[in-house]
Amino acid sequence: MITEWTGLPLSIGISGANTHDSQALIPLVKGIPPIRSRRGRRRRRPHKLHADKGYDYNHLRRWLSSGGIETSQRLGRHRWTIERTMAWLAGCRRLHRRYERKADHFLAFTSIACTLICYRRLTK
Predict the structure, then answer these.
(1) CA–CA distance, 83 with 94 (Å, rounded to integer)
(2) What's the CA gap between 67 and 43, in Å, rounded?
(3) Which of 7, 88, 106, 118 has the fewest CB atoms found within 10 Å of its own CB?
């Protein structure tokens, strides 16, 4: 899951329990929709990325820098925003335990939960 600094989910994905988190970074960054700006054209990618130490690989840093994305030198510093977003998702009873057998169904319910989280946070 990729979130902005306030903890709103920008891009989500699911994977198996035995896959490393670093393998999902590139598809998640590519899945971020264009971001509106007040002036100029829309940004396709974020300006900066904060991640934990599980994503600290040279090939990922090179890929991010080739796309114009800065990475934090102190990885893991802003991990609390991800943990808070995961706690918001854990509040959804349907997602607390995975009842669906198909991954597409689970991803759909996760998308609905993320939409509700964004709606609640943005209407405050």
Answers:
(1) 19
(2) 11
(3) 118
Query: Quick check: 75 and 55 in contact, CB under 8 A?
Result: yes
C-alpha distance from residue 39 to each of 42, 47, 49, 73, 92 (Å): 8, 16, 22, 29, 37
Strand boundaries in the chain, DSSP class E: 2-3, 9-11, 48-49, 70-71
For residue 71, list its beta bridge partners.
Answer: 49
Other Cβ atoms within 10 Å of 102 Cβ, number: 8
pTM greater than 0.90 (yes/no): no
φ, ψ for residue 100 (rounded to 5)? -75, 140
- The pLDDT tens digits for 77-123 are 777 777 888 888 888 877 777 777 888 888 888 889 989 988 988 88
The pair of structure tokens assigned to 63 is 């890929």
Indicate the residue type of 15.
Answer: S
